[in-house]
Amino acid sequence: MTRGGNDMDDIRIVQLTKEMVAEELRLMGDPCAAAAAVVRKTIDAAHQATPPQDFKPYVVIEDTVKGAMTALLLADHSVVRGSILVLEAVTDVAAKRGFDPTESMQAALKGLADLRRFVEPARLDDIRTEISARYMGADEVFVEYLKAVPMPDKSVPKVSA
Q1: Rg of the chain's alpha carbons, rounded to an integer?
Q2: Is 98 left (phi over 0), alpha (psi -120 to 50) or beta?
Q3: Please, what is the Cα angle at 84 between 83 and 85, to 5 degrees?
Q4: Cβ(59)–Cβ(14) under 8 Å?
Q5: Which of 28, 78, 81, 148 could form a disulfide with 34 if both were Cys (CB 3.0 to 4.6 A apart)?
């Protein structure tokens, strides 16, 4: 089931953002700031390129955040600092474009919560702590979204003899 267009569009935004952030990380000195800059550019570009009746800003925000954070994680950069800079980027773009600030933050937190599939609980708690320090009440929403992320099955398949 798709969230905003079709499944391929959703996948493409995540992949495109991940690749753009990875490229920016190679070019810039501050990888977390680069990720935040790409988030801003991607949301703006999607907003400008999509007819208003078809634009789903909260789907774009969630997917963009997922892609940016995945790129930071794969490049072994600070997902804690990156999370905060990406949230700041989302709130800036939301204000600039007139998106609902609460829904924009929720979409960004959903995107961040996707890290649960890849990151150990201690780092997720570090992210939660930083969110709590900057965005009152957002840490509780983040925790709820973390609980909703399905965990991959890591069980070892049984081999029959």
Answers
A1: 16
A2: left
A3: 95
A4: no
A5: 28
CA–CA gap between residue 74 and residue 34 (Å, rounded): 14
The C-alpha atoms of residue 51 and residue 138 are separated, in whole angstroms, by 31
Q: pLDDT at position 150, please?
A: 85
> Residues 113, 103: contact at Cβ < 8 Å?
no
Q: What are the φ and ψ backbone dihedral angles of 141, each rounded to 5 degrees?
A: -65, -45
Q: How far apart are CA 4 and CA 137, in angstroms?
A: 27
Instruction: Look at the block and give the residue holding tokens 């969230």.
Output: 3
Using one digit for the tens of pLDDT, what is the confidence trace for 28-56?
678 899 899 999 999 999 999 888 888 89
* Spatial distance between the Cα atoms of 143 and 95, rounded to a whole number of angstroms: 24
Structure tokens at 87: 């949230």
Question: Residue 30 contacts by C-beta under 8 Å, 6 or more apart in sequence?
Answer: none
> In this structure, what token pair is assigned to residue 90?
């989302």
Q: How far apart are CA 46 and CA 14, in angstroms?
A: 12
